[in-house]
From TrEMBL:
Transmembrane segments: none annotated. It comes from the Eukaryota. InterPro entries: CARD (IPR001315), CRADD (IPR037939), DEATH-like_dom_sf (IPR011029). It comes from Acanthaster planci. GO terms for biological process: regulation of apoptotic process. Residues 1-90 form the CARD domain. One of its GO terms (molecular function) is death domain binding. The gene is LOC110982455. CDD domains: CARD. This is Uncharacterized protein LOC110982455. The lineage of its organism: Eukaryota, Metazoa, Echinodermata, Eleutherozoa, Asterozoa.
């Protein structure tokens, strides 16, 4: 999902959370291969409508590039008001510019000259450390079953698979 779509989704996430139970759109999103069966199980395991929708909104931006299009299609029948709100979001020009084809490559090329990236893999744990403009961020991906980990610090992202 590009930055413009992420912006649109996050701009009205509160409205979506208040007005949607994600379980009613999951089948469509799985059929469109936006979500996989593990995502479906994870979302359905949430006990409340609000938690299910919050979890869906966490997963969608990291899914396919056209995830928002498929999400809107899933909403079209019973949640047209949410689609209308999504379509009405005014994306700032700077974000639109970043989302244009070719802009990503330019951003990556520019960032690679000023950022230091280091990746380390140990079994099912991959840790990537990036330093850019004096700020260090770490992303830790953990794969496998029944893992428990406590990680803390500034700018830490944990992806659970």
């Amino acid at each position: 999902m590009d930055e413009a779509d992420k912006y649109s989704l996050s701009s009205i996430s509160g409205y979506i959370t208040d007005n949607l139970d994600a379980k009613y759109v999951l089948d469509h999103l799985i059929e469109a291969e936006v979500l996989d069966p593990d995502d479906d199980e994870e979302i359905r395991a949430e006990k409340t409508s609000r938690k299910r929708t919050e979890r869906l909104l966490e997963i969608l931006p990291n899914s396919r590039p056209d995830a928002l299009k498929h999400f809107k299609n899933a909403l079209q029948k019973d949640y047209r008001h949410i689609v209308q709100k999504l379509n009405a979001v005014q994306v700032p020009a700077q974000i639109k510019k970043e989302a244009q084809p070719g802009a990503v490559g330019q951003s990556i090329a520019a960032a690679s000259t000023t950022a230091a990236v280091r990746s380390q893999k140990d079994g099912g744990v991959t840790t990537t450390t990036k330093t850019h403009a004096g700020v260090t961020s770490r992303t830790t991906n953990i794969t496998g079953n029944n893992n428990f980990v406590i990680i803390g610090g500034t700018n830490t992202t944990i992806n659970y698979h």
